[in-house]
Amino acid sequence: MSTTALESLCERLCAAVAAGDLDAVVDLYAADAVVSLAHGREAAGSAAIRAAWAAALASGLDLTGGGVSSTRVVVCGALAMTSATGSDGVVRTQVARLVDGRWTWWRDGSHLAHVELPPAGEVGAEVGAEVALEVA
Predict the structure, then answer these.
(1) What confidence tens digit (pLDDT) does each residue in 34-73 have?
(2) Nearest by Cα to 25 from 44, 41, 4, 49
(3) What Pfam family is a match for this entry (predicted)?
(4) 133 inside domain
(5) Which of 29, 30, 80, 86 has the most CB atoms within 10 Å of its CB?
(6) Is the pLDDT of residue 115 over 50?
(7) How many domains would you assign to the chain?
(8) Residue 135 confidence class, pLDDT cut points 50, 70, 90
(9) Residues 66 and 88: beta-carbon distance below 8 Å
């Protein structure tokens, strides 16, 4: 099985973040995905992930570690682990799922886990979104 589509998830995220393209970032995640946030919080589902990434992009922080220097992929049926090392040396790991022939991230435990975002209820107002960040 080719892992090119999985490897490209990491590269596509870096490109979307660099362009500030929130729609492209959110499109990398399954509708029922969960993204880990700082302080043990989580963004669950597309609306919460959109709000979290909107706040993160608005922060102006380097969210990709300077780009991808290497990517590793482990596939087991319709699930896969993507693990990318950024130019900063930090390893970012996600779980992807194959649905209808398309790989998307289902569990992202690292991209926003160390990014300080406003508390729940403030993210939506800060970025003009209609939905506040939901935490699980």
Answers:
(1) 999 988 889 999 999 999 999 999 888 877 777 788 889 9
(2) 49
(3) SnoaL_2
(4) no
(5) 29
(6) yes
(7) 1
(8) very low
(9) yes
In a domain, 72, yes or no: yes
- Which residue from 48, 47, 57 is spatially nearest to 22, judged by alpha carbons? 57
Phi, psi of 119 (to 5 degrees): -60, 160
- The tokens for 81 are 């682990």
Residue in this structure with the two tokens 């492209």, named with its chain if needed? 24
Q: Are 51 and 43 in contact (CB under 8 A)?
A: yes
- Assign 77 to helix, strand or coil: coil
Count of CB atoms within 10 A of residue 114's CB?
A: 13
| pLDDT (tens digit per residue) in 72-106 | 999 999 999 998 888 888 888 899 999 999 999 99
In CATH, what number is assigned to the domain containing residue 70? 3.10.450.50
